[in-house]
Amino acid sequence: MVIEGMLSILTPSTFSVMFLGVVIGIIFGSIPGLTSTMGVALCLPLTFGMSPLNGIALLIALYVGGTSGGLISAILLKIPGTPSSVATTFDGGPMADRGEASKALGVGIFYSFLGTIFSIAALWFIAPSLAKIALKFGPYEYFAICLFALTTIVGMVGDNILKGLSSALLGITFSLAGIASIGGAARFTFGIDDMENGFALLPVLIGLFAVSEIFTIAATGLKKEKNNIVDCKMKGFGFSFKEFKEQFVNMLRSAILGVGIGILPGIGGATSNIVAYSVAKQQSKHPEKFGTGCIDGIIACETSNNASIGGALIPLLTLGIPGDTVTAMILGGLTLHGIQPGPLLFKTSGVLVYGIFTAFLVSTFIMLIVEYGGLRVFVKILSVPKYILLPIIMIFCIVGTFGTNHRIFDVWTALIFGVIGYFLSRNKFPQAPIILGFVLGPIIEENLLRGMQYSSNNFFIFFTSPIAAVFLVLTVIVFIYSLFKEIMKSKNVRKS
């Protein structure tokens, strides 16, 4: 099964798809405001006409290229192309200012590659073992784990836990629209026939992350932009073997942090790069160098954010729970092809799973080659003004949402959620809990109802399962801790 899955990607069409995905991902990741999330959202409808392996390989390649591509603008423009490259600007920008842009780029690209390779190894060895354990899960366990995942993201995303909680509840509310899976009751349909099927995941994703971003940029006013691009001639990888040995512990620690944080649903590279940077600074013998242009910070950030890719795929493939917003879209790609991720996926579609693993590995090598070889081309793309890019992207959004199911209702859904996303972003409501709430809401509801039916409406039976009991207790602890932290923060603000 493993060998067959690995050989399944050795076709010209699959290689072409992965190469295209990596290139598009790097472009979207390197242009500030577009992000890899938007790139995956726009290309998701294209996978409908592909084979399942080619479709998922395209999304994986976009994910890999987009996450790594953010370092280009972070170093050359001091603007992170994606949230996962925020900490790269801290030391990448100063290095570029003093004429070491090529070294910063070389370090960032190479350690992005190493971080992704580490996460592939973790995915390869952890995911099958976790899937075997997950086969024993019932409604009690699934309910507890999904509730814990939702609570975790609410507490860790955003500066205000109430806003995070409101976003999650809003996502759950939107997921309830349509005919209930258990009981068959019509909810929030308002007499509209198209609402009986609820909101489709793809239009919601495109609306919240692509259309809302376009509205946000448009609201600030479109104008001609002139970016000062730093020259980036590079020799080799830009650093010595001695520096590689000195940074090995930093790299390994950051990779472990990236995978660990990536496994936590909804967190991803946006958090892992900041955490890894902070830990690297704390553990460094010369913390005063951080922020002045040292490779330590770039290595920590770029290793961790790419390591979170494999980490985010682990809960998606083994439990059907997306690790971040991009894997939520990959979940949409799987469902488009009638594939249900979860513990049975490794038994029913083992060839596909190991084909995806291999596509992940090949995309990583393509990313390394393309970023080094095409760096000067990607740098020129950074100078393309947004008033040219945004109208083209808006057309892609509309065509993409309509092309999936050929319903005008989906186009209206994307536009409406674009408006919702714009106002939420403007008022600093985090968007990640909305998507996690939208995806996990039906799973939580369905398993809660099933569990209550099995236990004759006795909720305390949920605690008889050791796994469920542990996660329910952790849910309470995380919620209380997040609430306590918010209260202490409010008190400190009032004192100051």
From TrEMBL:
Residues 17-436 form the DUF112 domain. InterPro entries: DUF112_TM. This is DUF112 domain-containing protein. Signal peptide: none annotated. The chain crosses the membrane at residues 15-44, 56-77, 104-127, 139-158, 164-186, 198-219, 255-280, 351-372, 384-402, 408-425, 432-449, 461-484. Keywords: Membrane, Transmembrane, Transmembrane helix. PANTHER family: TRICARBOXYLIC TRANSPORT PROTEIN.
